[in-house]
Specification:
homoheptamer; alpha+beta; SH3 type barrels; 8 strands; elongated
């Protein structure tokens, strides 16, 4: 099959026609595909595509899409469109090239197809690359995070510095920059979407009067929000949930407050300081 | 095989007939398949399908199906139907397209089939995608969870925000939004089905009079339900199970109460506070 | 190979004969297979099949089979029979369909067989599904557990709510419902078969008189069974095994009692409470 | 290749001859194979086979083989023989069936061989089944454990209840029955072979006179064996090995005694109790 | 296919022409490819390529690229170019060689392609090598780290000694040199990019006056920077974030300061020493 | 390909000749191979083979080879030789059988080669078996351990009872017999080769005079060797290495002594007891 | 394909010519390849090859290469050369043998290539072997360690006893010899390259005067080097880095000193002893 058959003298014209046909079809196909992709990715296209992946979102989807601003959405549309266009181009011209070579009796297909030992090694070795890129594309499509979001990628926790197709870059608390391969990310935690929650767990001695402690703590938490200038950061009034945990070493009283994304740590610190101070002033015994 | 044989001048009519036949069959097949799918997914279809997966459910299945409301069931039926229909369409027209090309002497099949190195890499790299979608479809079919359910997906614990075909989105206690790939979910814990249980483990010193402590605790738990307004949340009277654990550092007394789903944490907190207060008032020594 | 050869005008009769033959054989085969399956799964069939898997069971096999009641056995036989029948039907008609298409010069086989990139991705992605179903079928065949059994599946511990072919559903202590994929279950612990054992480990100070403590504990355990109404639950008289563990922080005295399945926790709690009280009354120093 | 060629009118006789030949050879082959298997598995066969796997056993191999009793050996031989016979039958008739079909122009081979997408999924999904059965067969052949043995399978520790080809069943201390897939067992610990060892580790304060403590402990251990009726269980005189461990929190003195299999726990408990009592009587300070 | 057909006497000329053609095309192709690669890797090429991978970098990308200095960029361009050139050469001449052999009736392709048992073993065994090299190439392309950077590769933490295509070499704190295979690196933490952060967590007793402690600590941190000569190392004024953690054993007060990369440890040590001394002087009780 | 072509009446003689040729060659090949293997495995062969694997051994290789005694070496040579011979026989006759069948128009090759679904399942399921045997053969060839050696296989620690081709059997401290599949052994620790080291780590209070403690300990260690009859077991004079570890809870002083293999534990225990007694007598404060 | 076609009477001469040609080419090829390999591995070859792998080494590469001594380099060159030569020989003659057989109508290729079930099992089972050898070859090429180096292979820590192609042998602290399969080594830590670092972490009470403690410690460390005869071992003057860690239980003061490889432990012990003694003499409170 690999042997080029003797070139038929009277087949040369036919050969030329066929080659021209292949090239022509490839070019036309590419133009058509690019146009479709451009059409789809601009305007209504990508949202339509996204709606397939998103179908069941809960509350306030419209609001949130709006919140992205059209800038971020447009940028994502462009990135996705360019990825698809490049893939289509490579596929179309690669196939055409192989077919033209085939017209000249040089069949690359078997060589490529059954590279055997080498093929196995390279094919399997490269699967991670493919995984990384596929994961990257889908994370982009589903808009799981953007530059500046606070995320937990399992391997790294911090602020997104760059969203790449193969790797995502995150800078953590200590300023370390983490390059995480997209294919190794099994779940993404994004702390910058819609709202966050400040959680304070106060350790209490086991013979504390919980009712009084809870009243004092709630009052202090509200004061913390007011006095430390976090009024704009907190979406609801802080509230005491109650005793969260009971063990031989004491109880844990939990307070929470919904905040704007990115503000949860500041609010949480303010609440912690005020609550501890208030409980101490009130002579409530903290676990020790 | 890849070489288009010289086009037979007298075969052009036959070729046209064959191409038309292929296209016709594909279109007819698609219409037929779509009709069957629509028929199956509407009305009795999906429940019938589901009953295959569900065959051995325990108690009160009828009740629960009812509880879903027809809205959620209909939505699920539509999603599943649309997934199946798209898959069938892609399969039918893809095959038809390949066969038509084959009529013109352009065989895509070998190229696709034995893409060799590239094929291995892409095929293996993409298997995770397939896993994710297949898992998503089955989780949808088995209705393992819906938006608003409190779930434990292993990688993330919280409230479902969105049930996607590739990823499920969960918002946890701290407001962090987790994107979990469906294929990585090995087991799902759903805390919002039918009922939940509030569990309180009270640590006791090893020389406590357990009988008296149990009586005091049970009374306090009942009072907690009554006084804190949880009467509607609790399905049974709270009860003391007894000493659950015995170790060098003391004993653990366990109380439980069946509650409506989603109310277990509030009931549990109320019971904890009342039981600890009552035991302290009764001078029962808690482990320290 | 994919190109339908020009339809031979004089071959139409032969073609019709062959197609009819294929369909006929397929239908006959299916009838025959179904009959055999029905025969095997009803009556002596499944037990015979099961005996292959069970060959080396220890004691009281006959008793236990009886204990299942014929209801559970019949249900299992039906489920298994229906699974096998569906598989056979799909296999037979699928093959016939492919062969009939082949008669018309439309060969699906190569397309299916060598779907290449897509095939790899889907084939590998779907292997988990197959694993789940195969595991489910074998767990059913071996009757590892049934609805209501208390099981430990590794990923989830609790009471079986539903035994599905793809997933098993378990409700745990806190009322959470766990969906566990059958293929991820590596070992099953079933606490509801034949009997269970209540185990109490009493922590003793290192300078305790073990002989006296053991006597006191055994007496108390027997009293616990008698006085707390567990006489019917306990199969043997509770006994003290002796010092199980010796470490720098003390000794551990172990008592056990064989109970009816499902009653081990109640018996264990009663024994714990009585033994601790008796040792305290006897002024035996427990580890602290 | 899948297209049955037109049946040659003059080839019918030859076809009949060939089909008969195939069937005949298959039947003869099966008879021959079964006879060989029966021959091998009865009498000298299996031991011969086993000797291949066992070649390098240490001491007292002959004794142990004898100890199995001929009952257990015969049962194993029968199980193995039946497994091999069934496999051979399936292989021979399956091949013959495929070849007969091939004579009629119906080639199942390509269909089976290249089931493509489905084949990949099923083939990979089923590999666990094969692993389980292969592991089961080899564990049987090597006689790693039998019903009643105390084993540690990693996933489960307890007494063997049933040795199956796919799963092994173990009942643990608490009466729970564990079904462990044979293919998931990486190493087997069998505590019921030839002899066991009771090990007592006594924690000593760091300023203990080790020589005196060792003498006291050894004497007490010997007394424990004598006075508690374990003379028949213990194969050697218990002995003190010496200080096993030295750390900031004290020393550990180790005593061991070789026992009959299954009696190690009773002996160990008796020794522990006597040694601790003797050391206390001798005013040797135990670590606290 | 492997059998060389009898050499056609009249085909020798044609054969020579075809061989010459193959060699000619191979040489021309190689020249063309090398030229393109040289063109791309020099000047605008690699940055263009990189921009594909980098598209979404956050702040100050231009600055940073500049900071690399042209030396490091040029070196990376050369390395990448040489890798690509070698790969292309091997591919082109390998294919040509196989095709020439094919002209003489010696088909290596099937041998290579279907090396069967051996091929599987070698192909799979070698996939790690491929993974390592592919990972190495991409890490180089994305410039994740360079010689001298302080990195955390998961398996090893320390300073980069060498960036190889298969392995990366890191020297850790104790002077140990770690060879890490690039394919095993799932995420890279680079502590030498743009800036780092010194973080000091001061443990406080639970009844400390946090406000006063924070003021003292901040003042001390600023003094540390000034007095210990770190003014040039610190980019912002050190600041107290507040109480980071609250537990039964006390609170944790966090201070941070952005520093130049590589200077974070020195700054952190200076700040720690000054803050502890100041708090002690101020009689603030540290957790003990 | 599977269809036996009609037997050519005039080809019968040729067929007979070919079959005879195949059988003859197979028999001759087997004789030749067996002779070569016998030649190689006896005498200089295996060492030569081993030297390939061993090339870079450090000191005293000759001595050690000698130490094995010729018995163990001969046994290993026989085992390896028999394995290779069986493999060669199976390969040669299996190929011949397939080829003879092929002469009669019965091609087993395609059936075997492309068993499809079944083949995948069995092939993958059986790979663990192959891994086990290959690992076993290489461990034998490299002589990593023999019966009676004290080894750490990761999964099991103890004394080798049997070295099998598929599993290795180890008896641990408690008399439990572990069957470990050779393929699951990633690294082997052998404590019975050439020499061992007794290591004693003495915990010292942080304000101990290390110089005096070291002197006392070394003297005591030497005395322990002399007085407890370990002079023949210890290869060098015991020595104090110095302070190995420094932490908040004290220092650790390390002593070591090279011993004959298998005697390290007895020596270590003697040294521990003497050193602790001497330090106590010397009023050196041990960590507490 | 497997059927030898009837030997063409007039083709015998051609056959002979072709066989001779194949053998001739194989022999010539082997001679040529061996010569090239010999040329490359001797003299400039291997370094050139190595430079490809090493391209980016940091400081003093020339010095280090020199330090190896030519002996070690030459040995490595020989080992590598012999490996490559053997592989080439096997490849060339194996291919020639297969081709010659093909000339006689005996095609081994399909048998080898598509061994089906067996092939899968053996191929996959053997991939670990291939991994081990490939890893071994590359570790040799990159000269990651040599006999006598102190290494951390993850699975084993100690001194290299032998560098094999499949396994590496390490003797650890207790004299145990570890056989580690090269393919399981993910990262290698080599503590014998160029220099090492002695690190002493002194625990200080939280209210220590760090400045004074640091001064005392540094002085003591310098004294330790001088007085204990380590002047030649230490490359730089020991220095105090400062407070490394601050926690509720105290501070940690870190001292380091660069040493000659292999001397870090002795230096570290000397420094520890002197620093602790000096701090105690100076009445600095160490953490307790």
């Amino acid at each position: 099959m690999l042997l080029p058959t003797v070139l038929p003298a009277d087949g040369l014209v036919q050969l030329g026609v066929r080659v021209a046909l292949i090239v022509l079809i490839a070019v036309l196909l590419r133009v058509a595909v690019n146009r479709v992709i451009g059409h789809v990715s601009a305007g209504a296209g990508v949202p339509g595509l996204l709606s397939l992946l998103r179908r069941r979102r809960g509350v306030s989807d419209a609001d949130r899409i709006q919140a992205f601003g059209s800038a971020r959405r447009a940028q994502r549309a462009r990135t996705v469109g360019s990825v698809v266009r490049n893939a289509a181009t490579i596929l179309i011209f690669g196939t055409a090239f192989t077919m033209v070579l085939g017209q000249f009796g040089v069949n690359l297909a078997p060589v490529l197809a059954s590279a055997g030992v080498l093929g196995l090694a390279v094919g399997f070795g490269a699967q991670n690359l493919v995984k990384d890129f596929l994961s990257g594309i889908f994370m982009l499509l589903e808009d799981q995070y953007g530059v500046g979001d606070h995320v937990d990628l399992g391997d790294a926790v911090g602020t997104i510095e760059r969203v790449g197709l193969r790797t995502t870059t995150v800078r953590d608390l200590t300023g370390m920059v983490w390059y995480v391969r997209n294919g190794t990310i099994e779940r993404v935690g994004n702390g910058s979407q819609d709202h966050a929650v400040a959680v304070v767990d106060v350790p209490l001695a086991i013979d504390t009067d919980v009712t009084r402690a809870a009243a004092t703590a709630e009052e202090a938490a509200v004061a913390a929000v007011r006095e430390r200038g976090h009024a704009a950061d907190v979406l609801d009034r802080p509230q005491v949930l109650g005793v969260e945990q009971l063990s031989a070493s004491g109880m844990t009283l939990r307070l929470t407050a919904r905040t704007r994304p990115g503000r949860q740590w500041a609010v949480q610190r303010a609440m912690t300081e005020h609550v501890v101070a208030a409980l101490r002033a009130d002579e409530v015994e903290l676990a020790a």
